[in-house]
Write a structure and sequence with these properties.
By secondary structure, the chain is of the alpha/beta class. It has 15 helices and ten strands. The chain is elongated, with a radius of gyration of 24 Å.
Length: about 400
C-alpha cells in the first residue's frame, strides 16, 4: 500500500507498537507535553459508532452477531472473527481504513502551524505508512510481557497471542523505526525516555522544519565502524524524499560511504534524488523542506571531474540537508544521466564490488584522519585521491559492463 501523505506545516510523528507494548502510555505523555495526538483507535471507534455507515458495512460483512444487545458494536466479538484469518482482517480494514484516513486528514489540517502531531497508529508498519512522517517512534516489549498486560486488561491469553501474531513482527517494526523504545520496566522509565526524546529531538526538529534550519555535521572529524542499520535508515529517509518529490522523483539512492558494507565512514547518510531537470529540483524544494530536508542554496554543484564531454556546467546540482537533530542527512539532487549523478552511483557500486578499491579508500580515509583535520578540510583533502580513483572506477565499469540502476530506492 502506498504511504499516505497528510498536509499541514507541522512535524508529524508516527507512533506504533504491538498490542500491550505501551503505546497508549507513550501517546498520553506526548499529549501532556504539548503534542496534538490523533489516535487511530479512537477514530476507528468513531467511524463504527451506532448509526454510522461504517457500522452498517461491518454488519453486512461480518453478520449481526458483532452487535451487542443495544445495537452497538461488540468489539470483542468482531475481533474474534476478524483476527481469525488474514482474509477476514483485510475485509475489516477495507471498511474502516478509508473512513479513518479521511477523518485523519481533517484533524491534521486543523492542527496549528507550529504543532507536533502524533499519529497513534497500531498498523503503521503493516500498512507501510512510515514515509508520511518525519519520524516513526516504535515502543516494544517481549511477547510474553505483552500477553500478560493484555490478560490484566481482561483479554483471554489465546486471544492476546492471536492478536500479536496477526501484527507486524519485531523485526519489521525495527526496520520501520527511527526511534525504538523498550518498555520493559516501570511506567516511569518509559515516561522519562519520552521526556528526553521530546526535549532533545522532537522540539528542535519541529523548530528546524518550521524555520528552515539544517542540522550540520560536526566539524570534529570522527570516522566510525560500519553500522549495519545504515541501509535501513537510508531506506526510511529515501521513502520520505520520494513521497515529498512526488511525480518529479526519478529514483532515490543511498550513496556515499555509509552505502558500502564494511567501509568506515562519517556517520552521515548521503542520498541522491534523481530528477529530469534542475527546474524539477527547484519545484520540489519547498515540499522537501516541509518533509525535513532543508535546501542549502550556497551549494550548487559538485567537484568537477572533467571529461571532454562533461563541461563544468553539467556538474550542477541542488543540495538539501536534514533538519532532524538525531540524524545528519545530506541529499544531493542531480539530473538523471548527468556526470555527477552517474559518478555517485559508479563509485558506490565499484566500492561494493571491488575489495581492493574499497580497502584503498579505507586506507586513505585513515591516513587523512590521522592528520588531525576537521571535517571540511578532510573532505577537501580527499579530492586528489578521488581525481585518481574516478578513472579507475570508469575502467572497472567498462570492463564489467556496469550500468547505473534504473531508478527507485533501495
Amino acid at each position: 500500500m502506498r504511504s499516505q501523505s497528510y498536509a499541514g506545516p507541522v512535524l508529524r510523528l508516527g507512533l506504533t507498537g504491538g498490542a500491550g507494548a505501551g503505546k497508549s502510555t507513550l501517546a498520553r505523555r506526548l499529549g501532556q507535553l504539548g503534542a496534538v495526538v490523533v489516535d487511530a483507535d479512537v477514530l476507528a471507534r468513531e467511524v463504527l459508532a451506532p448509526g454510522s455507515a461504517g457500522l452498517a458495512a461491518v454488519v453486512a460483512s461480518f453478520g449481526a452477531d458483532v452487535l451487542d444487545a443495544d445495537g452497538a458494536l461488540d468489539r470483542a466479538a468482531l475481533a474474534q472473527i476478524a483476527f481469525a484469518s488474514p482474509q477476514r482482517r483485510r475485509e475489516l480494514e477495507a471498511i474502516t481504513h478509508p473512513r479513518i484516513t479521511e477523518r485523519t486528514r481533517e484533524l491534521f489540517a486543523a492542527a496549528p502551524g507550529d504543532a507536533v502531531v502524533v499519529h497513534d497508529v497500531p498498523l503503521l508498519v503493516e500498512l507501510a505508512m512510515g514515509a508520511a512522517y518525519h519520524l516513526v517512534v516504535v515502543v516494544d516489549a517481549p511477547v510474553e510481557l505483552r500477553v500478560a498486560r493484555l490478560v490484566q486488561r481482561g483479554m483471554a491469553a489465546d486471544d492476546a497471542r492471536a492478536r500479536i501474531r496477526a501484527q507486524a513482527s519485531a523485526g519489521q517494526r525495527r526496520a520501520a523505526a527511527d526511534v525504538w523504545l523498550d518498555n520493559v520496566g516501570a511506567e516511569t522509565d518509559l515516561v522519562d525516555a519520552v521526556d528526553r526524546l521530546w526535549a532533545e529531538r522532537i522540539v528542535p526538529f519541529e523548530r528546524n522544519v518550521r524555520t528552515g534550519v539544517r542540522v550540520e555535521r560536526a566539524q570534529q572529524l570522527t570516522l566510525v565502524a560500519p553500522d549495519p542499520s545504515w541501509p535501513a535508515q537510508a531506506a526510511r529517509l529515501a521513502g520520505r524524499v520520494a513521497l515529498a518529490a512526488g511525480e518529479r522523483c526519478r529514483g532515490v539512492e543511498h550513496i556515499g560511504s555509509t552505502a558500502v558494507p564494511g567501509l568506515l565512514a562519517k556517520d552521515v547518510i548521503d542520498l541522491q534524488l534523481g530528477v529530469d531537470t534542475l527546474a524539477d529540483a527547484d519545484a520540489a524544494a519547498d515540499a522537501l523542506g516541509r518533509a525535513g530536508f532543508v535546501r542549502v542554496p550556497a551549494i550548487t554543484g559538485d567537484h568537477v571531474r572533467t571529461d571532454p564531454d562533461s563541461p563544468a556546467a553539467h556538474w550542477s546540482k541542488r543540495f538539501h540537508a536534514g533538519a532532524d537533530p538525531g540524524r545528519v542527512v545530506h541529499l544531493h539532487v542531480r539530473e538523471v544521466g548527468g556526470p555527477g549523478w552517474r559518478t555517485a552511483l559508479l563509485m558506490r557500486d565499484w566500492w561494493r564490488a571491488d575489495e581492493a578499491a574499497r580497502s584503498a579508500y579505507a586506507s586513505e580515509k585513515r591516513r587523512l584522519a590521522s592528520l588531525g583535520l576537521d571535517a571540511s578540510a578532510y573532505a577537501a583533502a580527499k579530492e586528489p585521491w578521488f581525481a585518481a580513483a574516478v578513472p579507475r572506477a570508469r575502467a572497472w565499469a567498462e570492463r564489467t559492463g556496469w550500468t547505473p540502476p534504473a531508478g527507485g530506492r533501495e
